[in-house]
Design brief:
Layout lengths: L3 E3 L1 E4 L2 E8 L15 H25 L3 H14 L2 H12 L4 H19 L1 H22 L13 E5 L4 H5 L6 E6 L7 H9 L3 E3 L12 E5 L4 E4 L3 H16 L16 E5 L9 H4 L2 E6 L13 H14 L4 E5 L34 H16 L4 E6 L5 H13 L4 E6 L2 H5 L1 H4 L5 E4 L1 H9 L17 H17 L3 E3 L7 H10 L3 E4 L4 H9 L3 H12 L4 H18 L10
Parallel strand pairs: 3-4, 4-5, 5-6, 9-10, 9-16, 10-11, 11-12, 12-13, 13-14, 14-15, 15-16
Antiparallel strand pairs: 1-8, 2-6, 3-7, 7-8
């Protein structure tokens, strides 16, 4: 085995320590002859109930709001009567409880995976629930994160949401997975927890338990068989980095302002001292109010939820994204038809073509909440593709008395026509996750294509630069609210491209702010030139880090053509 394995660095930072693999999925024994179907049905239902209660209890212990929401959603799935009925049917066909549970859940997961898009992502949730229920029926330990009594680097094929959501950073030093991509659950929650992480490392499962390894969440390198002294040095460096404090606001070394904003789903995601040390919110994901229910939330419920956020941030910018749902994030009350390719179907702003009243109710609630608070409220629509769509949305927003309206740039058509879209809106916000997906024609849920979804891809950076130039020409701000903004090195590149604000998870703010503060705006512009000149994502990242290191050592940047 090579001394250095390669994957995608998706959560910045370094970690080192003994490797330890995830608990194994239970292996089904040979089927048993069933003599008492009633007893088997009772056992299967007990297993589902036990798994649901355990996940609900873990949700109460989860400190991170995103983790809590994921666990609560999984607990609800375990209690779905349709799954219990599917298990009953399999037992009626002669299977014992363990095999019935495995069959019922696998069939449901296969159906979701075949549907593609957001539904395919939910298949992993069902498979995790299946494995937990089967383990309970067989009397085996639950699959998941080990607890050896000492800190370790976790190795896994991939992490189920329930496992990722309850990672304890005091025990788990970092993550290495064989599958996954930059926008997977693992990547998003690792960044939220501030854990260094490498995904899509195909040889990860060949690492033996106890091997001392060093992972680099910036470069995606996993170094094997490092010395104990090297482990201690990396641990000391990491502790020193965590101890360093960043005091905003965000700015470059020469004072160029770059607001560092938060991505949140509700007021619960804001720290208690939000009014004191949060510059604002760059992405308020309103769909969390809508998901998992059969009726749309009413005007009063929405107004109350938005008011809580706005009042927590008096005088601060809060950028609210209208409902981002549709065929790939199905909501029963939208009554949308099944689609052959949900990622290219009715989603985001497009849902208002058939259900305009849903958007109008939301805008009315936002307007009333904004009037009851002192926040600087901006409203943007997801999945804008044309200038006409932007103009129509802007007119609807302004008709409700809201003055700052924008468009998300998530499809290449919108990026290429950013100047024309800016004729109608006041700002742009780039969602790099979806823009990368559509630019590279690579499904965000396809781990085998994770390299194409790397936000360092020069083609994606080209589109971001085009949007930034359009914003500069129009005198209007262009921000980034996708996961790319949480990468400290890429943040410098984005600023150099002309991006005016960055929005990210809470845990990423200090690292991004510190990195920006060490570079002038001209430095960032040179790093951007270096990234754009690169042949691919891996080369771009390596060249930027090398150029920055050379600058710190010599006081000058090399030309992008001088070896980078």
């Amino acid at each position: 085995m090579a001394d250095v394995l390669r994957g995608l660095g998706v959560s910045a930072g370094a970690a080192a320590g003994p490797a330890l693999r995830m608990g194994r999925v239970p292996r089904l024994p040979a089927p048993r002859t069933v003599t008492d179907q009633a007893a088997e049905r009772a056992a299967a239902r007990d297993a589902l109930d036990q798994v649901g209660r355990e996940l609900a209890e873990r949700a109460t212990r989860a400190a991170d709001p995103a983790a809590r929401a994921i666990l609560e959603a999984q607990a609800l799935i375990a209690k779905d009567p349709m799954l219990a009925e599917s298990c009953d049917g399999a037992i009626g066909a002669g299977l014992d409880a363990a095999h019935a549970v495995h069959t019922a859940f696998t069939e449901q997961a296969d159906g979701l995976r075949a549907a593609g898009g957001y539904l395919a992502e939910r298949a992993a949730d069902l498979e995790d629930l299946r494995d937990r229920a089967v383990a309970w029926l067989l009397g085996e330990p639950m699959p998941g994160i080990p607890d050896p009594g000492r800190p370790f680097v976790l190795i896994a094929e991939d992490l189920a949401p329930a496992d990722t959501a309850t990672l304890d950073p005091r025990r788990v030093l970092g993550l290495v997975t064989a599958r996954g991509g930059p926008t997977s659950h693992t990547a998003i929650l690792a960044r939220a927890l501030g854990l260094p992480a490498v995904v899509a490392c195909q040889e990860a499962l060949t690492i033996e338990d106890g091997t001392l390894i060093h992972i680099d969440g910036d470069t995606g390198a996993v170094t094997l068989r490092v010395t104990a002294d090297r482990v201690a040095q990396i641990a000391a460096d990491a502790a020193r980095s965590r101890a360093e404090t960043f005091t905003g606001p965000g700015r470059t070394a020469d004072g160029h302002r770059v607001p560092l904003l938060l991505n949140i789903g509700s007021a619960d995601d804001l720290p208690a001292d939000a009014a004191a040390d949060v510059e604002g919110v760059g992405l308020l994901r309103t769909e969390l109010l809508f998901l998992g229910r059969h009726d749309a939330p009413g005007l009063d419920e929405q107004r109350e939820a938005y008011t809580r956020v706005f009042r927590a941030l008096p005088g601060r910018r809060v950028v609210l994204r209208t409902l981002d749902a549709g065929a790939d994030k199905p909501l029963p009350f939208l009554s949308l038809a099944d689609e052959p390719n949900p990622a290219l179907g009715i989603r985001g702003l497009r849902t208002s073509r058939t259900r305009p009243e849903v958007l109008d109710t939301q805008l009315a609630a936002v307007a009333e909440a904004a009037a009851a608070a002192d926040a600087d409220v901006w409203v943007m629509a997801p999945m804008v593709s044309t200038a006409r769509e932007a103009a129509d949305f802007a007119a609807r927003v302004r008709a409700h008395g809201l003055s700052k309206v924008g468009a998300m740039i998530e499809v290449p058509a919108a990026a290429l026509r950013a100047a024309q879209i800016l004729d109608h809106v006041d700002f742009l916000s780039i969602g790099t996750n979806d823009l990368g997906q559509y630019t590279m024609a690579a499904d965000r849920q396809c781990g085998e294509l994770a390299d194409l979804l790397d936000p360092w891809q020069p083609a994606l950076l080209d589109l971001i630069a085009s949007c930034a130039r359009a914003g500069k020409a129009a005198g209007k701000p262009v921000g980034v609210c996708g996961e790319a903004a949480s990468d400290p090195w890429l943040a410098c590149v984005l600023v150099g491209l002309g991006i005016s604000s960055l929005s990210m998870s809470r845990a990423a703010v200090a690292r991004v702010g510190s990195q920006l503060s060490m570079h002038t705006f001209d430095d960032c512009a040179r790093l951007a030139e270096t990234a754009l000149a690169a042949a691919d994502a891996i080369t771009a990242r390596a060249a930027v880090m090398a150029a920055s290191s050379l600058f710190r050592a010599t006081g000058g940047f090399p030309s992008p053509v001088d070896g980078f």
